[in-house]
HD/PDEase domain-containing protein (Paxillus involutus ATCC 200175), 251 residues
Amino acid sequence: MESTTYPSTREQAAIDAAEKLMLATMERYDSSHDSFHVERVRRTALSLAHSIPERKPDLLVVELAALLHDVLDKKYVSPVEAADPYAYFLPFFQSLATIHGLDLISDGRARLIIRIVENVSWTTERKLQENGKIEEWHRDCVELHCVQDADRLDAIGAFGIMRCAAYSAAVNRPLHAPPGRDDTAIQHFYDKLLHIQERLKTEPGKAMGSRRHQFMLSFLQSVQDEYNAKPILSESLGKSCQDGTLSNPDT
């Protein structure tokens, strides 16, 4: 008899298979949406799920949805591939049943995982809201909320800043430009990233988001100061050194 501790032997086999599928598919994606991003989302989603045991999230659903959430990212795959995610992933779920004896199709969790994958996106949620198509499921599904929050948390804070720069480089988008241009990496912060904190769903996710949001605000202030060549007074520089807030990154 398998242990009730998560993950069981069969659950671990499913996780390993999902990870293998994700790695094979996403190796061609740029570093803003690579396997390391997925690993961070998985780790954060599980952390959030463990932090809200009273809502009883299904940990396997959370972990598999996190692992698969960007495999069919529309920025990287064709419309044909992205058209029917359930059909795309069905052979994967069938293999879990035949090879590992874990039938997520019959118990309905395969459908739930793919529904989460289809609804993680910020853009998808925005369109649903604009068209009045947010359902009770979107408001109540704790597994969706864990994966959504984890994905959005990786878009803000320190990693969010690096990912924004990485994607900008991949698509040849300017990092910053004189006022009047709205096609820059910095503009993306004002268009989207600074609004993410408002749309986090879980309480622990909101707490993480608050800290990362403040980090972005500090970063954007530094960008503005540097762009304007704002001088640093010698007395302020000396005070920073005394306070230990200024250090040489090469030492």
